[in-house]
Design brief:
Distance between the termini: 44 Å
Structural class: alpha/beta
Helix content: 40-55%
Strand content: 5-15%
Order of helices and strands: HEEHHHHEHHHHEHHH
Largest sheet: 4 strands, mixed
Number of helices: 12
Radius of gyration: 20 Å
Strand order of the largest sheet: 1-2-3-4
Number of strands: 4
Shape: globular
Amino acid sequence: KQWYQRRVRGEDSEWDHCNLRSYYFHNIKTIFTGVPKTGCSNWIEALLRAEGDLDHSLDPTRVRWVHGKASGNHRMGANSSMINTYSKQDFEEAFSFTVVRNPWTRMVSAYRDKVSQEETQGGSMDGTRKSIVSLMRNITDKEELNDLYPTFTEFARWLALRQATQKKSLDGHFAPQWRTLCIPYVKYDFVVPLEFAKELSPEIWQRIGSSDISLLGSYDKSSDPRLQKSALMAQEWLSELDSETVEKLYSIYEADFIMMNYSNFTDPNFPLPLNEENKSTK
């Protein structure tokens, strides 16, 4: 209703089309879209510090708080209070950026974080975990499902099946990245490949006017994205899948691969974006 009223008055902004994973920080005049599994928790926390909402670094386990109470009043979207708080001019004059990631490593990261037995900083999705195991192993006993976790192969096949039957209902952690971005309504000033966050984050902070030059993004200790766990696991696990399943998975993320120019898991420089001299087919 609020968005419609602004549109009638001619005060609507292209940014009104964003969903609640986009944030506006008025003090630093910045818009950030947080794509799940691109290190968005780290970026949001750093932006909250630059905005003046936080005066210290948080424990990585406080992910839910970062995405909830800490950043809730910065969320954008047609149903957000932002529509009445700030003007079209505020949004259009803001510096905007987002972070993207190789779809294969992002998919593996989502598996590890949300439905695997591995202990991670994020919150697990127990309902989804149980649904995958129940479907893939034909188990209906609820008690039995409590302690079972899907293998990556089971997750991959479930995801391919889900794409075929319930394409638009994929959770944001598993859905293609373009669904979270505010495209085609807006054009971001800066799109950061997570793989180059170390090199590019200082430029982001310079544009924002902040002195924070911390490395943002992956929790992985390796600075070389080619040697990080999700990249190595993606190469191994995807190579073990049958070609039909890989093709179905690729179809989910095909637009991401094309728009973001990312390499396939068979590429020697995986998961880095391709350059013009090093393009390979899927």
